[in-house]
Amino acid sequence: MRGWCVVCSVVAIAHVVLAQETERKILPIAEFQAARAVAITPLGEIFVLDGALSRLYKLDQSGKKIANVGGFGIDREAFDTPLDLTTDGLNIFVADRGNQRVVQFDRNLNFVTLLQNRPTPLPTPGLAREPNTSVGQLWRPISLSISGQGDLYILDEAQRQVIRINPLTFAAEIQQRQNPAQFQFGGFDAGAGNLIEPCHVQTSRSGKVFVSDAAAKAVFVYDLFGNFVTQIGKGLLNTPKGLGIGLVTEQTESGKEIQEWLFAVDESALLMFRAEQQAGFQFLGKITVETLSQVLQAEPKQLKLVDVALLGETLYLLTEKALYLLPRTVLKLAY
After folding, report:
1. pTM above 0.85, yes or no
2. Domain total in the chain
3. 227-256 residue pLDDT tens
4. Is 1 inside a domain boundary?
5. Distance, CA of 308 to CA of 305 (rounded, Å)
């Protein structure tokens, strides 16, 4: 999940509701068989993975599917259980779990290259976690995110680690085998930052890496170098999955301030936290599927939330069967 959003709202107490500004319910702009992830470019181009068809779709803002690539298989443009995608605005990166690789396309869905092998870095002094891997080690990439600095963070299900690489050179043989500038974190030797059942990774503009963990029922927070910071959402999350980041303009006592929010997709709700450490990763509130069904053309049981992406004043909410666009005026804080 993987874009940016600026939303105007007023901060008061930690509850979020949907404003009843219209009697007409919001219809989905596109439907899918088993959607897995959504990503938005700064130009508003929409990309969605459909796991049932092993296909990557490009959509316009009306939801029209204008291009697609994939299908089940092992060919370079095919997928086997694709689970996540991310974009830097020019390229689309797909985590292909079954084929054990990351595939890169351009924004028109032309194949560019792929990362077939698990990157194995050389020890680098000063990094949070030194590598403990060997060439050819089994890996299953299940999620990825590009940081504001241009680094690609890949979540490996097999080793329960996050790997950071340079996406501009990841197809080179030396990059796939031994890259001294790349490192990994979150594994069994990560202490309090040891991931148990990681699901999704999301980077923020403020320099944090968030990893949702279904078994821990929390979101792990690291800095960009893999140093563990804290856990958030403990006691609030049940089965955290997709993550999204958004820039929110808040009206405070001292005036308007732009803050960064983390959106966490749970099994039956969308939760919001401050994404900045100085704000203590404060919990802001949640929207349940029951509340969402009041403004979306769907019953609560149909709203199996999967992922979320944000751009401008629009929230892109992906369920297993459909993609909804919610205007920022629908999302408000209760006070």
Report:
1. yes
2. 1
3. 999 999 999 999 999 999 988 777 677 778
4. no
5. 8
